[in-house]
Amino acid sequence: MYRQPAHRSQSAHEGWRTPDVARSGELEALIALEQIGTRLRFSRNQEIYAQGESGGFWCQVVAGAVRITKLRSDGRRHIAEFCFTGDAFGLDRAAEREFSAEAVVDAVVMRYPRAATERLIDNNPVVARLLRDMTLKSLAAAQSRLALLGRTTAGERVASFLLELSERSDDRKRVELPMCRCDIADYLGLTAETVCRELSDLKRRKVIEVSPHSVRLLERFTLEAIGDE
Amino acid sequence: MYRQPAHRSQSAHEGWRTPDVARSGELEALIALEQIGTRLRFSRNQEIYAQGESGGFWCQVVAGAVRITKLRSDGRRHIAEFCFTGDAFGLDRAAEREFSAEAVVDAVVMRYPRAATERLIDNNPVVARLLRDMTLKSLAAAQSRLALLGRTTAGERVASFLLELSERSDDRKRVELPMCRCDIADYLGLTAETVCRELSDLKRRKVIEVSPHSVRLLERFTLEAIGDE
DNA sequence: CGCCAGTTTGACCAAGATCAACGCAAGTGG
DNA sequence: CCACTTGCGTTGATCTTGGTCAAACTGGCG
User: Fold this and answer.
1) Among residues A161, A157, A98, A140, which one has the least CA distance to residue B68?
2) Residue A175 belongs to some domain of the structure
3) Is the CB of A209 under 7 A from strand D?
4) Which one, of B134, B109, B108, lies nearest residue B121 by Cα?
5) Are A165 and A141 in the same domain?
6) Residue B40 and residue B138 share a domain
């Protein structure tokens, strides 16, 4: 999995970097993309786009966190994805949005119009590759989450959620939880109460320390044993 | 969702067609792709590629059905996807395969080497677009399945599974089930027994008729009511 | 200080898993 | 051709996990 560098810039380019050596033309591609994009600011719980809207653009998180959610007619909510700095979202090209996107905390987002992006793609293979890599990354993430939701216990889900966040954290031992418990629950297919209980259980077993918006990982190894199994 | 034409050819191009008018250069793109591909035949339950292998190629189903599975160390299995005629699979470009692919029934598959595909992509925007469309389609499918696995009851899962298959079936009222009950169970995150019970329940309520490898939809409307809700 | 949203904990309940038995059709070998 | 096996499918009885409901707690913030 792609790791964030320890020192982050606030540049809109953040997250575009690939682990391998940059290919020729990549910088130009990034500049071209930045030129068609708009930088936007959203406050906590503000909607970025809504389920059912037409999707004339896609986005990338510059700072903060975004949740991609689906609300069912009976009120049940599902969170498909949490997006952090560097993550792209809203790439799908369906006629209308299947999901809505909301800021979990105050966030900065680059928004790219789809039509202009298409033109760039057709004229610049490097842009095409960037976009495809991002899409493939989303696909891989979605598929590994499918395996998680399909066949795992509540404990396993919570453990691998913490590990997933810690992979993306600056400090491997400390995980920030910008979202509330019911967001986590809707992401993991559990209830907020069960998430609480599993966190408390891990706390009782001295695997983690818990506070409402952050967790300290005391025994990563134990967590991994729970999460993989 | 994209519907199969009523009359199918056995051409490797099957499934490439898009609902809108073909873009210029599309035929050339398809021919170029076909030239780098190999046509392969697999028998029931035969492995197409294995979890952990290096993924130097991607595939497309020409005939039959393929399941994309992940086996966990403790024996629990998860099926990420069933692929039918026209579906692409193994697109991800990770160092090694996260999932394995197996023929559900005897199947014909086109296999495309990744390196040659990359060259085509860089030289031909139409090929790039085709590949990206397929990837986006897989992504959309994975995300809507996430919502399904996250927050639904056994009955809802079975109902929407039947509807999903009927969307892709020639005869809207008759669904073929090439896979066994435990495949369905591993796909829906249930047990084979629960799948059976839900099917029996729908049968009892005269919504469907069931035989081991096919289902007749008597009351599609009821099924939709169960599936959406 | 008191309020409020979010978190935590407990008691109870139900959906679905597990375990077990049986049915049934397609091989297989004598 | 018929016993026997084998792999699925179906059904029932019981148990467990996690959901539901309710109440107490906590930390920010006006």
Assistant:
1) A140
2) yes
3) no
4) B134
5) no
6) yes
What pLDDT digit, counting tens, does each position of B194-210 carry? Answer: 999 999 999 999 999 99
Q: Which of residues 175-214 of B touch strand D (CB under 7 A)?
A: 180-182, 192-193, 196-197, 199-200, 210-213
Neighboring chain B residues of A93 at a CB cutoff of 8 Å: 133, 136
Q: What is the pLDDT along chain A (229 residues), one digit of tens a residue?
A: 333 343 434 444 444 444 444 556 889 999 999 999 999 999 999 999 999 999 999 999 999 999 999 999 888 999 999 999 999 999 988 899 999 999 999 999 999 999 999 999 988 888 988 999 999 999 999 999 999 999 999 999 999 999 999 999 989 899 999 999 999 999 999 999 999 999 999 999 999 999 999 999 999 999 999 998 7
CATH code where residue A221 lies: 1.10.10.10
Question: Residue B122: which domain range?
Answer: 21-145
- Residues of A with CB below 8 A from B99's CB? 143
Q: Which of B98, B121, B150 sits opposite A149 (nearest CB)?
A: B150
Any strand C atom closer than 7 Å to B127 CB? no
The answer to whether position B76 is within a domain reads: yes
pLDDT value of residue A125: 86
Count structural domains, chain B. Answer: 2
Residues A43 and A84 in one domain: yes
Catalogue the long-range contacts made by B157-160 (C-beta closer than 8 Å, 24 or more residues apart): B157/B188, B157/B189, B157/B190, B157/B198, B158/B184, B158/B188, B158/B190, B158/B195, B158/B198, B158/B199, B158/B202, B159/B202, B159/B223, B159/B224, B159/B226, B159/B227, B160/B227, B160/B228
In a domain, B222, yes or no: yes
| Residue A9, in any domain of the structure | no
To test the contact with chain B by mutation, choose from A78, A151, A161 the residue with the greatest count of B C-beta atoms within 10 A, namely: A151
